[in-house]
Amino acid sequence: MSIQVPSHHITAQPGEFAKTVLMPGDPLRAKYIAENFLQDVKQINSVRCMYAYTGTYNGASVSVMAHGIGAPSIYTHVCELFDGYGVENIIRVGTAGGLSPGMPLRQMVIAMGACHNTSIINPLHYNATFAPIASYKLMKTAIDTAESLCVPYQVGNVFSSDTFYPEEGDHTQGWLTSLGCLAVEMEVAPLYYAAARFGKNALGLLTVSDNVVTGEKTSAEERQNSFTGMMRVALETAAAID
Asked: Which of 12, 157, 188, 224 to pair with 93, CA 20 to 30 A apart?
């Protein structure tokens, strides 16, 4: 594959993305990060409202771009970033649902690996199952950063689901909880698969916005404009690997 740029979904010019890109799902969260944490910011994409910006953080060049909802959306955008724009590192900064009663709201989860049910992974039906995992260098840097910033975190498996509203009688999440899976979201597994496919680096940092067991949840405004501990860890990690 050789994706030409500007691409189908990104109108940025070659060289306008930094080598490290932070990717929230929500376009307004991308805007919030750019306006509140980056200096010398330039907007470089608005196709389908997937806002993208490049600026500096502590002197390091960093980009932030929204990826939308679900595996097809994030996979399409990260393929274009990795293959077309030469991006080396992508850090998803997203939200997730806690999968145990003891998982507190606003807890940061560092996704070491990602269970999944998406057909994007293994599309050619090879007689094997690919296990999507984080890039060790990014994960180690994020853990060290969280420790230095005193940001509480847990490290472990997450579940990337193609279904936000599962059918009645679907016991998948309960089964994964019994195996120690920490949280459910929709995009980490395809991100890790794309990074492996193109020989790049990826990490999922997630803030627990709701708990699917207890029913607790944060507000839409809080999901968009807070969770700054996760954002700081991601930005400091990006600066450290620049």
From this structure: 12
CA separation for the pair 95, 1 (Å, rounded): 31
Distances (CA, A) of 26 to 19, 23, 29, 145, 174: 21, 9, 5, 24, 27
Query: What is 156-192 written as a DSSP string?
Result: EEEEE-S-SSPPTT--HHHHHHHTT--EEESSHHHHH
Task: Note whether residue 159 is domain-resident.
Answer: yes
Q: What is the pLDDT of residues 8-29, one digit of tens each?
A: 999 999 999 999 999 999 999 9
What is the rounded average pLDDT for all residues in the chain? Answer: 95
pTM above 0.85, yes or no: yes
Q: Domain with 133 in it: what CATH number?
A: 3.40.50.1580
User: Angle of helix 27-37 relative to helix 228-240, nearest 10 degrees?
Assistant: 70
Number of domain units in the chain: 1
End-to-end CA distance of the chain: 27
Examine residue 14 and state whether it is found in any structural domain, yes or no: no
Q: Are β-strands 39-45 and 52-57 bridged in parallel, bridged antiparallel, or unpaired? A: antiparallel
What residues are labeled active site?
210
| Per-residue pLDDT reduced to its tens digit, 121-157 | 977 778 888 999 999 999 999 999 999 999 999 999 9
